[in-house]
Amino acid sequence: MPKKIVSLVMLMIISIFTFCGCGEQSYGDTEIDLSEFFGNSEGLAVFYKNGSYYTYGNNIINERRSPCSTFKIVLTLAGLKYGILKDENTLIKWDGTERYFDYWNKDLTLKEAFNLSAVWYFEKVANEVGKENLSKFASELSYGNCDTTEEIPFWLDSSLKISPKEQVEFIYDLFEYKFPIDKNHIDILKTVMQKGTINGGTLYGKTGTSGEGNNSWFVGAYEKDNEYLYFAVRLLDGENVSGAEAEKITRNIIENYFNNFSVKKEEK
Questions:
Q1: How many angstroms separate the CA atoms of 152 and 92, rounded?
Q2: DSSP one-letter string for the chain
């Protein structure tokens, strides 16, 4: 085979592996200064709107870490797909085991469990869906590194990892109905992800907090006038490295930086 043809074939193969799911990707971004919102916390942020990325902490926005409880977005979809969950009101009985938070220790609906981030509820969903089905589903969604080799819960400080950029891509594809997922299931998910309003728009999101104290998330979307701003905010260090703090910072950024649903300033 002529060298020119061999080179062309190799280039095509490299391109396929570069742009398929479960592979690292890089993008052009507009860097913005969000330091005033993070204060003494070390973290990063990725926002996406109308084909443009706006990033803070650009040197680590492609670094993969455990998704923690943000993976409950996928678990909700899997539960709906495999019939374990019916809608946001699906009730699962508490097994009577006392857990870390008192508010977990009761019967919970899907919406309650999602908002309270009740680990036991979603571990039950995951086990009923089954490891094989769940692993296949994560791969179909090209979720992060797609590494579900460890036992359930492989999304908590374990084998599965995802970057902030990939989180934003995932939420974008989900909310834009680009995945081969029942539209009704996505709409149910959007119902449980609702976190109230900011500046007249609707906030959707999910928190996640590592047990290791060095990784917390808030990922989701903000919708106003039928336009979406997608985001992933992650904290790495500080006095309060928690999903709740990441959500607080995100809300503040959306309210005061992306006010009037536009970028206040751009910095190279």
A1: 19
A2: --HHHHHHHHHHHHHHHHHSTTS------EE---HHHHTT-EEEEEEEETTEEEEESGGGTT--B--GGGGHHHHHHHHHHTTS--STT-EE---S---SSGGGSS-EEHHHHHHHT-HHHHHHHHHHH-HHHHHHHHHHTT-TT----SPSSTTSSSS--B-HHHHHHHHHHHHTT-SSS-HHHHHHHHHHHEEEEETTEEEEEEEEE-TTSS-EEEEEEEEETTEEEEEEEEEEESS--SHHHHHHHHHHHHHHTSGGGS-S----
Distance (Å, whole) CA 265 – CA 253: 13
Q: Once rounded to an integer, what is the mean pLDDT over residues 79-87?
A: 98
Of 186, 187, 257, 252, the residue nearest 218 (C-alpha): 252
How confident is residue 261, by pLDDT bands cut at 50, 70 and 90?
A: low
Nearest residue to 254 (alpha-carbon basis) of 236, 229, 234, 235:
229
Is 69 in the active site?
yes
The model's pLDDT over 31-45, given as tens digits with 9 standing for 90+, comes to: 999 999 999 999 999
75 pLDDT higher than 80: yes
Q: Return the pLDDT at 15.
A: 38
Task: Choose, from 7, 35, 52, 69, the residue flagged as catalytic.
Answer: 69
How would you label 62-78 residue by residue, b for 16+ Cβ within 10 Å and e otherwise?
Answer: ebbbbbbbbbbbbbbbb
The model's pTM: 0.88
d(CA 172, CA 256): 22
pLDDT digit string (tens) for 139-172? 999 999 999 999 999 999 999 999 999 999 999 9
